[in-house]
Specification:
With 203 residues, this protein is of the alpha/beta class. It has a domain of 140 residues: Beta-carbonic Anhydrase, Chain A (3-Layer(aba) Sandwich), CATH 3.40.1050. It is 46% helix and 13% strand. It is built from eight helices and five strands; from the N terminus they run ααβαβαβααααββ. Strands 2-1-3-4-5 form a five-stranded mixed beta sheet, sandwiched between helices. A hairpin with a 6-residue loop joins strand 4 and strand 5. Helix 5 packs across helix 6. The chain is globular, with a radius of gyration of 17 Å. The two termini are 21 Å apart.
């Protein structure tokens, strides 16, 4: 399994190809590659990303079958199932890198900010469970001058949520904490720009 820093380098290079529209997708999903992965896999990175249809992780990083272990949920929130999935990737496949990938103009973040400013009675319990996980990372921003600048408020809220999810994942289980402690896992945050196609890594 490749080291975490080499995995980040590979993701950066793939994203640069994607942003420049020079990727070559055919070999990444060929029948030969598919057959080679029937019995085993060794994803070099795990990505906890948002479900947003505009952020297909393998495409954004120009990776193919078997390269990435992808977990997607609205708002890239951290819940027990996401933590368990990361544990599984790290222990079962030896994956050394986890990226919490948020993105600009995230709908889950916008929905949380709207709910904080104008609570509704009609919100489903399932959607509320997502909003409640995003809420702690963003509600403090509404007490600042950012409340008068909606675009900047969302931008800062997206980043605050990525950092909070990264922190929660790093400290979400003894398994992950021990892997990090013994340099067997690196957890970093990143943001994908819908406008440019570029991923910015935070750590």
């Amino acid at each position: 399994m490749i080291p975490a820093r080499e995995a980040i380098k590979r993701l950066r290079e793939g994203n640069a190809r994607f942003a420049a529209a020079i990727q070559d997708r055919d070999p990444l999903a060929s029948p030969e590659r598919r057959r080679a992965l029937i019995l085993d896999q060794a994803p070099f990175a795990a990505i906890l990303g948002c479900s947003d249809s505009r952020v297909p992780v393998e495409i954004v990083f120009d990776q193919g079958l078997g390269d990435l272990f992808v977990i997607r949920v609205a708002g890239n929130i951290v819940a027990p199932s996401q933590i368990g999935s990361v544990e599984f990737a790290a222990e079962q496949f030896g994956t050394r890198l986890v990226v919490v990938l948020g993105h600009s103009r995230c709908g889950a973040i916008q929905a949380t900010l709207q709910e904080l400013q104008r609570p509704t009675e009609s919100q489903s319990l399932n959607l509320k469970s997502i909003v409640d996980r995003v809420r702690p990372s963003v509600e403090g921003l509404l007490a600042t001058e950012l409340r008068n600048d909606p675009d900047e408020l969302v931008r800062q809220a997206v980043r605050a949520n990525i950092r909070a999810s990264t922190h929660q994942l790093r400290h979400g289980s003894q398994v992950i904490e021990q892997l990090i402690l013994h340099d067997r896992l690196l957890v970093v945050g990143a943001e994908y720009s819908l406008e440019t196609g570029v991923v910015e890594f935070f750590d």
